[in-house]
Amino acid sequence: MKRASDVLLALSALALLLVPMLLIALVVRVGSRGAALYWSDRVGRNNAVFRMPKFRSMKVGTPTVATHLLADPGNCVTPVGAFLRQSSLDELPQLWSILKGDMSFVGPRPALYNQHDLIELRTRCGVHRLRPGLTGWAQVNGRDELPTTQKVALDLAYLRRQSLWFDAKIMLLTALRVLQRDGVSH
Q: Exposed, middle or buried by CB within 10 Å (0-12, 13-18, 19+), for 61?
């Protein structure tokens, strides 16, 4: 049931957002050197690595690490990148990953392939069995500001409570957090 609702919702979102996504791609491409999309190696369900697209918000050549690990994240962001990240518009290409089955709308955010501590802790707790999400329980409870252990505790709480109703609550809370620009790293 969840997979069917993911596909239906992703197709609907793509139909509504196709023109705005093309405009964003154009602005990203014109605003800085490099491709409009950035393909990131991420760890998905059962720790399988997949390629996840995002609108590029960082300058070409920025190290592939979590934003909080960069020496000067502000210096790595493109002119339009800060807005894309604060508004979460950089995440829209992940609708492709949802259609493909690599992701769901709701689940733990996919870890970077080099976030070994996060991957190991999720595996120990059984969270690795979940399909990663565009948003998740950890995102609505702190997003980028949470330490790894707290993220995984929230991911585990999601694993235990998951349902379509809980997913709907998380998606509504996500929309509110995005509108408030709550807990986003710049």
A: exposed
Per-residue model confidence as pLDDT tens digits over 37-57 = 999 999 999 999 999 999 998
> Which residue shows structure tokens 């793509």?
14
pLDDT one-digit tens code per residue, 114-170: 899 999 999 999 999 999 999 999 999 987 778 999 999 999 999 999 999 999 999
> Residue 40: what pLDDT?
92
Q: Are 53 and 94 in contact (CB under 8 A)?
A: yes
pLDDT of residue 186: 45
Q: Do the Cβ atoms of 158 and 164 come closer than 8 Å?
A: no
